[in-house]
Amino acid sequence: MILIVFLAITMVELMVGTFALGHFGPGLQPVISPVWLIPVFLACIAYELAVWRFLGKLPPDAAIPAGARYGNAAIEASLPTILIYGAARLFGPTLALSGPPVLLYCMLMILSVLRLDPRLCMLTAVVGAAQYAGLAALLTTANDLAPPGLPPIAPHLARAALLVASGVLAALVSARLRRRLRDALRVQEEHHRVLGVFGQHVSPAVAEALTSRVEQQGELRTVCVMFLDIRGFTRFAERRAPTDVVAFLDTLFDPMIDVVGRHRGIINKFLGDGFMAVFGAPLPADAPARDAVAAAREILEGIAAQISAGALPPTRVGIGLHVGEALTGTIGSATRKEYTIIGDVVNLAARIEKLNKQHDSQLLVSDSVAATLGETDLHAIGEVTVPGRDAPVKLVRLA
Prior knowledge:
With about 400 residues, the protein is an alpha+beta fold. The chain has helices at about 1-25, 35-55, 65-90, 95, 105-115, 120-140, 155-200, 205-210, 235-240, 240-260, 290-310, 345-360, 365-370, and strands at about 220-230, 265-270, 275-280, 315-330, 335-340, 365, 380-385, 395.
């Protein structure tokens, strides 16, 4: 389309130039009538429109044969030659070989870069330079001005050499752009692949954060950690086929994953018959503890609803929550990294979950979690000795 516009501008320039010669310089009348250029211009524009229309009908992933691409490049590189020859018949060789149509060669090389094919850039430059040199040899006369000691055609041959050199530069730029575009597409494909994998376990917003905003060096954040465990799972699994166990876990975990994602959390690890979820990272949250409690309560309600509907056998889970500061970020090697949470908040949340068996509960939280809820009718258990810790922990039973 850009070439069509430039062809039209060149045609207007030639017509205006012809009118100016006839009006202001009667002694410089053109050799022939400019009318014959009109069908030539129209043919050039019709060809470009046909190519543009053809390309517009192709599917986005259609591959154009190399012969067609190179043939079209050679034909387009010949269009300036036709215009220069017409200008020479109108204004004379000297003006035509240095007039506006010569700039079409440069424009074609610039446009050839966008094709991201270095060979097309070189073909455009070589065809244009060869045809320009041929026209110069045909049209240059002994009366044309040239530097002392050089033939009249020498400046035109130098211009042709510059066209070839420009083609080499265009080819290098095209190759560099092609490599960068290929690298960018590879990164984008990897981003979508990782996003698709994460998107199976977390909400789209959290998945996007995991792929674009995960801290590489680690960051200290306030997070709420949730541990969930299925009660009696070992006994349940030993009486059933592996396929039945997997189907049970899928039915149980699928809605839980959605619940955690809706409350701005992520499933950080699956632990066979349970999982560890994190709220407050990688997405920042104003109240990660409240988000975690809301998610835990919705999970318990969902399990009860599935049991009532017959989708699940009688199932009981234990959930433990604790909030505190933790180091969040990625750890691992250059080939494999994992987003993880490191800190005492993780260890204490895991131990609180195990205390559900002792207190016949399904949802136990630390007093730091309960303090964020703003509720007054909570069932406080009081200070409880936690295995592996010297100081007791105040626990609250929510379910």
